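Lab meeting, action items carried over

1. Structure of the two-component assembly. Owner: GW. Status: complete.
Input record:
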Amino acid sequence: MEVQMRTLLLISSVAVLLIALWLFVVTVVRLRSAIGKTEKLQWVEGELDRALRQLQSGDEEEILVALQMLTALNEPTARLRALPYIGELRQNTSPRVARQAAVTEERIMASLRLPSRTERSPGSGRYPLSQTGGAERTQSL
Amino acid sequence: MGKLVDLGARRQFEAASGVITARAVNWCIWKALLPVFLLGLLWPVYGVILKLPHPFQRAFSHGDLLVVAALILIEASLEGDHIEKQSGTFRLWCNIGRLIAVLLIFLFGFMKYDAILQESALARAAAVDQWQILDKLRVYSCFSCSVAVVSLVASFLTFAVVVDLERSEELRRLGLS
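Predicted assembly:
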C-alpha cells in the first residue's frame, strides 16, 4: 500500500512537471502575442501623434491623411484634442479638407455620444463638452 | 498645439507602459518568484550552513511549498477578473486553478501530518527502516517541488494571458481588432 502510494506520488510529480513544460510553451506563445499587440498599440500612438501634428501642417494631403487617421482610430484623448482644430478645418478653403473634416467630426461626435455641430442648437457654445462635464463622460467611455 | 499634444499623448502612453512593467515586476518577483525562492533557500541553508542530515527532505517534505503554490494559484486565478470579455475557456481554467489550490491546501494537511510522524519515527528506526522513511520523505519533497514549479509556470501563463487580453481589448476599443 505504502509502495503504491509512493509510486503514485512519483508518477504525479513527473506528470506535474510535464504539465509545467506544456504550460511554459503556452506562456511563451501568449507572451509573444502580447508583445506583438503592444507594438501595434505603440504604432497607433505614434500615428496619432503624427496625425495631430499633420493637422496643423497646412499641407492639404497631410491634413487629409491626419483626418482619415483620426476617423479610423477610436482613441478618445487624441480625438478630443484634435476636435477644435477639426472644427476650424471645416471652414477650410479646400472642399476636400472641409468635407473630410465634417466626416471626421461626425464620427468623433458619434463615438463620444455628443451632438454633432449640425445637431446642436445655435448659441449652445462651441462644444458642449466644456460646459456639460463631458470630460467625465469621456472618461467613462 | 503639436508639442502639447505630443507630450500629452506620449506621457499617457508611457504611464500605461510603466504600469504594465510595474505589474510584471510585482507579479514575477513579489507574488511568485521571491516566496518560492526563499522557501527553496532552506535546502542549501540546511545542507551547507547548518550541515543537517537529509536537508532536501527536511526542507520540503512538510509540504510548505504546497501552501505557497495554492496561494500563487488563487492569486493567478483572480488576476483576470477585471477583464470584460473573458472567454469561457479562460474562466474555466481560472476555476480549475482555484479548485486545485483548495485541493492542495487539503493535501497539505495530510502530508504535513504524515511527514511529522515519519520524522519522529526516523529518530527511532533502524538503519534499513530509515532508508525507507527517507525515501518516502524524498517523494513528498519531490511532489511539493513539482507542484511549486507548475504553479509558478501557471502564474506566468496567467500574467501573459491577462496582458494579451488587455492589449486585445485596447485594440478592439481602437477599432483595430
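2. GW to write a short summary for the group page. Key points so far: Residues 2-54 of chain A form the longest helix (53 residues). The mean pLDDT of chain A is 79.
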